[in-house]
Design brief:
- The complex is a heterodimer.
- By secondary structure, chain A is mostly helical.
- Helix content of chain A is 73%, strand content 3%.
- Chain A folds into 2 domains: 36 residues, no CATH class; 509 residues, MetI-like fold.
- Chain A has 30 helices and 8 strands.
- Chain B folds into 2 domains: 176 residues, 3-Layer(aba) Sandwich (D-Maltodextrin-Binding Protein, domain 2), CATH 3.40.190; 146 residues, Periplasmic binding protein-like II (D-Maltodextrin-Binding Protein, domain 2, 3-Layer(aba) Sandwich).
- Chain B is built from 14 helices and 14 strands.
- Classes of the chains: A mainly alpha, B alpha/beta.
- At the A-B interface, helix 8, helix 14, helix 15, helix 20 and helix 23 of A face helix 1, strand 1, helix 2, strand 3 and helix 4 of B.
């Protein structure tokens, strides 16, 4: 590299510098295109190909295209409930309407939902619960100042990284009849209450909220911190009440983020798998449970059929949402978030009903979020005889005496962190570039290109809309076993690069979904003026737009890191036989006939992740205005 | 060139930095690289006898005994996680002891995420099977293999090559009843109830579980994905027959049985006193003792004085080029010392008759065996298991 002498040197050197500059200019002009191209390649190889390998099983019967599998599922009342009649005889509209009329006349009696219907039903309830628990957190975190606010905001992401089995263990340890909550109630002479037994569906929904309310909160906080409140001040000066001004000015700016959180929650819980069975039992089976059962019996065609139908539901919702989002593009020039009030400035204010309600909410979050995690951690320090360090001694012994082919704690920690950081470098550009492509073409083009942008944006959500189990099988059959090429060659992709790419594929939609709404909200004149002053599109993005949507970028980065740390199903397949296992994989492998060792590893996972988030948020926070 | 070594070097990621993608060519000759790629030119046709056919020229032992089994190189053994990663993993002992006895041999444990399904898929995709022996096979795995794999995955046991094979006890608890004789058991365990004697009495019969006294007391596991859960389902099929088991389960469901995903969550629910009974293993007290637990909450209930036996077996892959070494390992596993170690470390019961294993007397104090062992045979499961699981799953999930 000739990073020249200050005076420019000889003519030859100057020539070299000129070439250098020209290359750099070219790169800069085409940077977005190149990143988009790379993104497409990564998605093609790491997502569409593996998923396609499995999905193909559903639509080919004996090598010929056929919808027979779909017909079978859609006409089976077990899967689709009453709708099976509609699918069996779609043209008998008259009789369907008559049936509908009869149902209304009979006073809306309950009807068989089928597996898909129940799955959607519990997902809808879970979404409502996640909003109910997540939005107050966003409100408090965005509007009040108190000690530890930043740390709490950092830690909201923790539930996201916990393996499903640890959440189940934590929930039983917290809400079980011999659990922490009943122990506390016992002190004041209450209980024990069978919280889980009495209503398993309710506890499953709370567990879904445990995972997803933080997601809602985090996305909404990011939007709140980008709100432009100058309009609020104008509205107030024109005599609007605080409530009126809030509803007219702040709510519209938050709505895209709230809806995004709701959408993601619905999709996640629609595809829920381990948690619903671990806490609710098979009576509450969802579609994904059946996908898994089919995969285990190697019935790929049936599994793929169910998985495709799941994906169609998720993508249809996404599409509908994105049409709505693209209609919401605003004209905000800069973020001017509301100033944060002190939460408890003095004793008198602290006793106001509103503040007391906040305290009450705080207690609720302690029970729902902190409770299960702390109860799980306590489980790692106890055995039948009370307090013990033996589970941690196990970890230390395994680290110091374990054989190379065993799963050791330190490599798991190291790999998790390395993959997490590497995933940031891959997923962030991927997510941002998709945001830019879709919001820009949606804005610049006419009606049709807007629709195309929405379709691309919808397809970008495929990683979240595809069954994780199917994705894993696709990776195994596609990339680990190798894709047959001509001449007997096989393309195999495993190991570190494959894991990081798979994590990036799983994570970039979070970047896109956090950044897109904010980006779409920016006044296009900002970029246009930068461009007219000679800045490349890439420069304009880097210097003008991204700083204005920093809160979305930081939120996206936090999710990316969390997704990578918590990812299990594809990691375990790509790491099989190597030393590329991560912390969640280690947790799973330490599960034995007593849970102690796995819980100890789960606690390490929590501690390391919590620590990194505090650090990452502090570092990331430098790019945010406080 | 040893293809597999190359792949491993390229993609294994030993130090965290590794190249991921790689191109490999499936040529017909060096399918299974274990450093010995000359030996057998013509791959197995239909010959059953000639499985010591490699290593003719290139041995350096001078003795020129061409029939001498080849006992050097790497033996790739596929197994499940706890065999390698458990607290007192049997796998580590087996590797060390076997390598001590066969100094030129090395065991390479591999733990595929999807168990035997991994190899069924490899076979069906035309990919080389990357293991020599599967360690940890149940009867239902074998049924799945035969129902799904396009070609034979495992080879028949070469009984003449095994010194200890006759020690295996003659007992339904360890039998695989495989018509092709491919699997040998190495240990077995029993599914039973574990209950809290402070809360309930031993129900003793299946019928009792449907009575009011036991309403809302039992936790079991999802038979579609959990070994003990499936064993419990099969046990009810053994008790009530193919035509009666769903009716029995209707009654169980009416009596509010809870069917939780997997063993760990189910046991976690039991530990937190959600319910006083859980389907588990008859060796539960071994763990209760080890972890200073409360024995009154670790009582073993053998319904109908039975336990459902789940023998664990081992089988050599058809395409393995280390058949001699694999046989040596199988024989070693059935030896006196190994049988005792495996039983204690896996907390299971030996596969060989009592006189061929020196199990510590105290072991029987906490590891209980049922008066009678029941299990469905290969023939009973074959062709039926999928349907049973489906019908059962639909019954439960549509309630």
């Amino acid at each position: 590299m000739t990073t020249g002498r200050p005076d420019g040197g000889s003519a030859r050197d100057r020539g070299r510098v000129r070439v250098h500059v020209r290359v750099r200019d070219w790169l800069e002009r085409h940077a977005l295109g190149l990143i988009a191209l790379l993104t497409a390649v990564v998605l093609g190889v790491m997502l569409y190909l593996p998923v396609g390998v499995v999905f193909a099983e559903a639509v080919f019967v004996d090598g010929r295209l056929s919808l027979a599998h779909f017909r079978e599922v859609l006409t089976d009342p077990f899967y689709v409930g009453v709708l099976s009649q509609v699918f069996t005889d779609p043209l008998a509209i008259g009789s369907h309407l008559a049936a509908l009329g009869g149902w209304i006349l009979a006073g809306f009696p309950s009807f068989p939902l089928g597996l898909f219907g129940f799955t959607a039903y519990q997902a809808a309830l879970s979404t409502v619960a996640s909003l109910a628990l997540g939005l107050p957190a966003a409100y408090v975190l965005a509007n009040y100042e108190f000690r530890g606010r930043r740390t709490i905001r950092s830690l909201t992401i923790l539930p996201f990284v916990l393996p499903g089995i640890m959440v189940a263990v934590g929930f039983y340890a917290m809400f079980g009849q011999a659990g922490t909550l009943n122990a506390i109630l016992g002190v004041v002479g209450l209980g024990p209450y069978p919280f889980i037994e009495r209503n398993p569906l309710a506890i499953v929904i709370v567990a879904h909220a445990f995972y997803n309310a933080p997601l809602v909160a985090r996305i909404t906080v990011a939007a709140w911190e980008s709100v432009d409140v100058r309009a609020l001040e104008t509205a107030r000066s024109l005599g609007a009440s605080p409530r009126r001004a809030f509803v007219d000015v702040v709510v519209p700016q938050l709505l895209p983020a709230v809806t995004t959180g709701a959408l993601l929650t619905f999709i996640f819980t629609f595809m829920t798998f381990p948690i619903v069975l671990a806490l609710g039992g098979l009576q509450l089976a969802t579609v994904e449970v059946w996908v898994y059962a089919r995969i285990q019996r190697l019935a790929f065609a049936e599994a793929a059929t169910l998985a495709i139908l799941e994906t169609i539901v998720s993508l249809a919702l996404t599409y509908a949402y994105l049409r709505y989002e693209s209609a919401q593009a605003g004209m905000s020039r800069a973020a001017a978030p509301p100033p944060r009030e002190r939460l408890f400035p003095d004793l008198r204010t602290a006793l106001e009903p509103w503040r007391l309600a906040i305290v009450g909410y705080g207690v609720l979050t302690l029970v729902v979020f902190v409770g299960p995690m702390v109860s799980m951690v306590i489980g790692g320090f106890t055995d039948g005889g009370g307090f013990t360090l033996r589970h941690y001694e196990f970890l230390i012994r395994r680290q110091t005496e374990g054989a190379s082919y065993q799963t050791l704690p330190w490599p798991a920690i190291r790999n998790s962190l390395l993959f997490g950081v590497a995933t940031l470098f891959v997923a962030m550009p991927m997510g941002v570039v998709i945001s830019v492509v879709t919001t820009r073409s949606g804005r610049e083009g006419g009606h049709h290109s807007g629709r195309w942008a929405t379709i691309i944006d919808t397809l970008a959500m495929v990683p979240l809309a595809v069954s994780g189990i199917v994705f894993g099988i696709g990776l195994l059959r596609g990339l680990v076993f190798g894709i047959p090429l001509i001449g007997g060659w096989r393309l195999q992709i495993t190991g570190v690069v494959a894991i990081v790419a798979a994590h990036a594929v799983a994570a970039y939609p979070f970047v896109t979904r956090n950044v897109s709404p904010l980006l779409a909200d920016l006044d296009p004149a900002l970029v246009e003026s930068a461009r007219s002053l000679g800045a490349s599109r890439y420069r304009a993005l880097l210097d003008v737009e991204l700083p204005l949507v920093a809160s979305g970028i930081v939120a996206g980065a936090a999710f990316t890191f969390a997704i990578s740390i918590g990812e299990f199903s594809s990691t375990v397949i790509l790491a099989s036989g190597g030393e590329t296992y991560t912390m969640p994989v280690a947790v799973e492998r330490y599960l034995g006939r007593r849970n102690g060792p796995a819980i100890a590893m789960g606690t390490v996972l929590l501690a390391i992740t919590g620590l990194s988030f505090v650090v990452v948020d502090r570092v990331g926070g430098r790019f945010e205005r406080d | 060139m040893n293809r597999r070594t190359l792949i491993r070097t390229l993609s294994g990621g030993t130090a965290g930095i590794a190249l991921a993608g790689c191109l490999t060519q499936d040529d017909d000759e060096n399918g299974n690289g274990n450093g010995n790629d000359t030996g057998n030119g013509e791959e197995n046709g239909t010959d059953g006898e000639n499985d010591t056919g490699n290593g003719e020229e290139n041995e350096t032992d001078g003795d020129d005994e061409t029939t001498e089994p080849n006992l050097e190189g790497t033996l790739r053994i596929a197994t499940y996680t706890s065999m390698v990663d458990g607290e007192e993993a049997a796998g580590t002992w087996l590797k060390d002891a076997f390598e001590e006895e066969y100094p030129d041999a090395e065991i390479d444990w591999t733990v595929p995420e999807s168990g035997v399904n991994h190899y069924i898929q490899q076979a069906n995709q035309g990919v080389d099977i990357d293991a020599d022996l599967f360690f940890g096979l149940n009867v239902d795995d074998l049924v799945l293999v035969d129902g799904r794999a396009d070609e034979s995955l495992f080879r028949s046991v070469d009984r003449d090559a095994l010194e200890h094979v006759d020690r295996i006890r003659d007992d339904p608890a360890v039998e695989f009843d495989d018509p092709d004789d491919r699997v040998l058991p190495y240990d077995t365990g029993y599914i039973s109830l574990v209950y809290d004697e402070n809360e309930v009495d031993d129900p003793e019969t299946f019928d009792a579980l449907t009575e009011e006294e036991y309403e809302g007391t039992l936790i079991t596991q999802n038979a579609q994905q959990s070994d003990p859960g499936q064993a419990f389902l099969l046990w009810t099929i053994d008790a009530y027959g193919e035509d009666g088991y769903l009716d029995y389960w209707e009654e169980l469901l009416d009596n509010d049985v809870r069917i939780i995903d997997d063993w760990s969550s189910a046991y976690s629910a039991y530990e937190n006193e959600e319910r006083p009974m859980v389907v588990s293993y008859s060796t539960d007290q071994v763990y209760t003792n080890r972890f200073d637990g409360d024995m009154s909450r670790s009582q073993i209930g053998f319904l109908e004085e039975q336990g459902y036996a789940n023998p664990e077996g081992m089988a050599v892959f058809e395409d393995s080029e280390q058949v001699d070494l694999a046989n040596a390992f199988v024989d070693f596993v059935l030896s006196n010392e190994a049988q005792a170690e495996i039983a204690v470390r896996n907390v299971q019961f030996p596969a060989v008759a009592d006189e061929h294993v020196d199990l510590d007397e105290s072991y029987a104090e906490y590891a209980h065996e049922p008066p009678e062992a029941v299990s469905l045979t290969y023939d009973q499961l074959s062709g039926n298991l999928d349907g049973w699981l489906d019908d059962w799953g639909q019954l439960v999930a549509s309630r």
